[in-house]
Amino acid sequence: MSEDEVTRLVNDVMSNPTLVDEAKGIKDQAGMAEFVAAKGYSLTDDELSQLWTMAVNYMGVQG
Prior knowledge:
By secondary structure, this protein is mainly α.
């Protein structure tokens, strides 16, 4: 997946209050992977790891 797809995922989630609420309920990296897959995105393990790091560092998710 390209960086454009990662950006698209983040933008899609941040622009949709329902998705934001769902994302706030993610408790661990496995939950994030399930959320991403359920929304139809196919990210590499490295991309999922980067998203998880961003969630922990910038969005207040408890890592």
